[in-house]
Write a structure and sequence with these properties.
Keywords: Hydrolase, Metal-binding, Pyruvate
Protein name: Fumarylpyruvate hydrolase
InterPro entries: Fumarylacetoacetase-like_C, Fumarylacetoacetase_C_sf
Number of domains: 1
CATH topology: Fumarylacetoacetate hydrolase, domain 2
Strand order of the largest sheet: 4-3-15-8-9-12
GO molecular function: acetylpyruvate hydrolase activity; metal ion binding
Number of helices: 5
CATH architecture: Alpha-Beta Complex
Structural class: alpha+beta
Distance between the termini: 42 Å
CATH class: Alpha Beta
Amino acid sequence: MLSVIQNPPRIALPIAGSSDLFPVRRVYCVGRNYAAHAREMGADPDREPPFFFMKPADALQCVGSEPTPHTYPPKTENYHFEVELVAALAGGGSDIPVETALDHVYGYAIGLDMTRRDLQDEAKKLSRPWDLGKAADGSGPIGALYPASAIGHPAKGSITLAVNGDVRQKGDLADMIWSVAEQIAYLSTYFTLQPGDLIFTGTPSGVGPVRRGERMVAAIAGLGEITLDVV
C-alpha cells in the first residue's frame, strides 16, 4: 500500500554528545507554573490544579550551538518569549505515580514557548481555544536534549532569557509550583503518555515582546544556552 501524498517528515531532536536522534510524538505545555509569572498574567499563584495546552510537533524549531534565525510569524504585532525547561519522555503510561514519574524521563532541553500574545488575549476574552496564539509555525524553538543518565533530573538552577544582552526573564527551576514529576503524574491521568512525548514545564516571570532584528539567548543551568535571531 502506497501513501497518496509524500509522508511528512518525523520531527526529531538532536542529543547532546551523540549522533542519535529523539523522535517526537506529542508536545504538552503547562500554563502558569511559576508564581511570579502567574501574577504577571493576572492569575492566582496558589497551587490550583495545573492546566495544559498543546503545540503541534512540527511547530518545534531545532536550535543548534550556533545562532539560529527565527521567523517572526504573521498576524501578530505582540510576539512574546517564554523560556522553559523541556522534559522528554522515554516511557509512559496512565496514572503514573509521582514517586516513579521521573523514571520515564529520557532527558531535558531548553525550550521557548513563543506566543502571539495579542491573538491569545483575544481568544481568552472570547472564551476560544489558544491555538492561533500558541501554535504558530516555529513557535517551539528547542535545543539539544541532555540525557538524564548524564545530568540527572534538574530540580533547581538558573533559568534566564536575554534580549540583545538585556536579561528579561530570570528565575530558578526550584520556583516551579508543580514539579516535573507532578506534571507527568497529573497529565497521565488525562492522557496515556508515550515515548517521544515532550512537556514544556512552564516559564518564570518577565515574559515580553521580541521584535525583528533582536537576538534572544535562553539559558538553563546544566543545559547551556541557545541563541535565536528574530528575522
